[in-house]
Amino acid sequence: MRTLELTLQEALEICKALSHEHRMEIVRILSEGPLNVNEIADRMELPFSTAAVNIKKLEDAGIISTEIVPGRGSQKVNSKKYDRIIINLTDRGKQEENSFIVELPIGDFVHCDIQPTCGLLSEEGILLVQDDPRSFYEPERKRAQLLWFRSGYVEYHFPNRIPYGTQVEELELSLELCSEAPYHKLDWPSDITCWVNGIEVGTWTSPGDFGGERGFLTPSWWRTMNTQYGLLKSWRINGEGSFIDGVPISPVTVDELAMLDKPYISVRLGVKKNAANVGGINIFGRKFGNYEQDFLMKIKYSPRARS
């Protein structure tokens, strides 16, 4: 999927170019395949000159491209350049003062205990052997863009970049998740738990395993009858306790995690074998699902200890 990602300032000209129903319809039509101006004008029942003016505006904005194709005399053929346009309302590249962000590929786990059904996919195809936990120990696992298992866990070690002599104020963990059902099933609850440095910080009950329509980023070779996308979830631990998407889930505070004690920060995600809802887990990388990110950790700290 070809994606154009823009800041608010960069999006201004794009929004102007798309702010007309004719131009929106041209982009929709070109999603079906390249066409020349005459073909677009006929499809939209517009005069040639009207179609040409609107195509030129889209081309100037960089939304579509035009190339000369030989054959029955040279002709200009128009095609869309992107499948999706993302406008960031905040500047993701801007680093907040006294904070840092680390993003790990989902296949970069260091330890696991996996129970089938299970498997790993790369952007190009199936990795190794499905329903065989041994596949999760192979070096190729690092290429995974989607991984799943029925119960157990995967454990990640994030590099510890907390400056010496500072106090951690907040830890945030974010990634795309859902349950793991045969093929997919919207009503398939699963209790997914997160541990940080060996301490359980909370459990989220995923409502289901989402499929039936393609995820924005999911490759076309992966059939829609299978898992397609998840929900973007955020665990946040600070001085007041632990939260999922802002909802309190446990009294565990950030001080209890002792994040300055080791050169790495351990994060484990999994489904307990004795959970009330043992419905498995799917973990999505930046090339699968609906959100173009891997496993993201953000830490905020203060230059001196809290009094």
Automatic annotation (TrEMBL):
Pfam families in the record: HTH_20 (PF12840)
Residue ranges occupied by any HTH arsR-type domain in the UniProt entry: 3-97
Domain of life: Bacteria
UniProt entry keywords in alphabetical sequence: DNA-binding, Transcription, Transcription regulation
Molecular function terms, GO-annotated: DNA binding; DNA-binding transcription factor activity
SUPFAM superfamilies for this protein: Winged helix' DNA-binding domain
Protein name per UniProt: Transcriptional regulator
